[in-house]
Amino acid sequence: MTCDDVAATLLETLGADNTIAKTFEVLAGDSPIAEAVRGI
Q: What is the pLDDT of residues 27-39, one digit of tens each?
């Protein structure tokens, strides 16, 4: 996973209500980041 992907994931989770008080793992994959965050 690249530093850019980590940064984009962090940015996406900051605006996502479904990630509040959640713990999740971040792994490289084929899903777009926004789609993966919505699935948390």
A: 999 999 999 999 9
